[in-house]
């Protein structure tokens, strides 16, 4: 049986972006999942409601997960672990080490941080198992959460988000729903839920990683199939992955992305992040400019990323 624990502050608001809509010639609404929590803000906490429910059910004492040094998912996992009395161990890909943003919070939560090289990260599952054995020798019970919390269980968090959304606004009135794609769980959950409800609204995922669209199409389909085993029967989900707004590299914003962050903060008093949502938002503006369409953008959070990249932003 699937167990969900209440962690996020729900429902998050849906707002109309008046100025941006008037200026860009389409109706843009935003689902404020940057407001799911304070320290647990963003999309990962919705996935953790299910993943941590499972961890507790299995009697875990220690939580493993992985990500980049400034991973939002790692920070949310460290936070939620401490909230539930569990010990977080974060396996973070080595990179420029800025003691601010998510990493600073990881440290305040006393997370055990294991820095791994990019090559080691390719085989993170082996490293997990090695460390798991060590922890088990010391009597810990380890629960492993995959990168981004993106498996079928985690994706249920975004299935749940759509159930929340349909009570807030007429979902079928939108011509598309747009979100950023980093590990695929968010778009999998959203598209599975839309298909489950029989809605024909397509989901557009703006890929911000170095992997390509084909990889994510397969991964998302697999997650949706696996959700079937958890009792959520979704037929062929309607989604598309767009590769054209990735910028210079993962977690590196282009000048245009930086300008979008400043523009939206100034016009709408909403802060986008430099890794995911600025790229997805810029993609939304470019794809739908002057279209007259009605679009919903899912703000997946990432606020602490602006502190880690402050020098780049101003
Ligand atoms: C992780 C993350 C995403 C991507 O979500 P996935 O489910 O991993 O595809 C988007 N935005 C923010 C701010 C994130 O932290």
UniProtKB/TrEMBL annotation:
Residues recorded as bearing N6-(pyridoxal phosphate)lysine in the entry: 44
Active-site residues from the entry: 71 (nucleophile)
Top-rank taxon: Bacteria
Matching Pfam families: PALP
Keyword ATP-binding: no
KW Cytoplasm (keyword) present: no
MF (Gene Ontology): D-cysteine desulfhydrase activity
Occurrences of domain Tryptophan synthase beta chain-like PALP (ranges): 5-301
UniProt keyword list: Pyridoxal phosphate
Requisite cofactors: pyridoxal 5'-phosphate
NCBIfam families for the chain: ACC_deam_rel
Entry similarity comment: Belongs to the ACC deaminase/D-cysteine desulfhydrase family.
Protein name in the entry: 1-aminocyclopropane-1-carboxylate deaminase
Organism, as annotated: Thermotoga neapolitana (strain ATCC 49049 / DSM 4359 / NBRC 107923 / NS-E)
């Amino acid at each position: 049986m699937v167990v969900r624990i209440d962690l996020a502050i729900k429902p998050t608001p849906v707002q109309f972006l008046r100025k941006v809509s008037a200026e860009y010639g389409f109706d843009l609404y935003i689902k404020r999942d940057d407001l799911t929590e304070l320290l647990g803000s963003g999309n990962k906490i919705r996935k953790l409601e299910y993943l941590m429910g499972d961890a507790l059910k299995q009697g875990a004492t220690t939580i493993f997960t992985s990500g980049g040094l400034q991973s939002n998912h790692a920070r949310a996992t460290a936070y939620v672990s401490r909230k539930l009395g569990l010990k977080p161990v974060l396996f973070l890909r080595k990179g420029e080490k800025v003691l601010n943003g998510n990493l600073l919070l990881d440290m305040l939560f006393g997370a055990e941080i294991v820095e791994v090289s990019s090559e080691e990260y390719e085989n993170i599952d082996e490293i997990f198992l090695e460390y798991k054995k060590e922890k088990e020798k010391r009597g810990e019970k380890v629960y492993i959460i995959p990168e981004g919390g993106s498996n079928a269980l985690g994706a249920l968090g975004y299935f749940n988000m759509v159930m929340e959304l349909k009570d807030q606004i007429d979902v079928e009135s939108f011509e598309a729903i747009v979100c950023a794609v980093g590990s695929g769980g968010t778009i999998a959950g959203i598209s599975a839920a839309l298909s489950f409800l029989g809605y024909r609204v397509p989901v557009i995922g703006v890929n911000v990683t170095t992997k390509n669209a084909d990889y994510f199409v397969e991964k998302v389909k697999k997650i949706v199939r696996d959700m079937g085993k958890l009792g959520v029967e979704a037929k062929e989900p309607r989604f598309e992955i767009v590769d054209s707004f990735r910028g210079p590299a993962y977690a590196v914003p282009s000048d245009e992305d930086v300008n979008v962050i400043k523009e939206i903060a100034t016009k709408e008093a909403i802060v986008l992040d430099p890794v995911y949502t600025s790229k997805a938002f810029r993609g939304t503006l470019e794809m739908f400019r002057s279209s007259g369409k009605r679009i919903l953008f899912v703000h997946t959070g990432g606020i602490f990323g602006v502190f880690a990249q402050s020098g780049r932003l101003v």
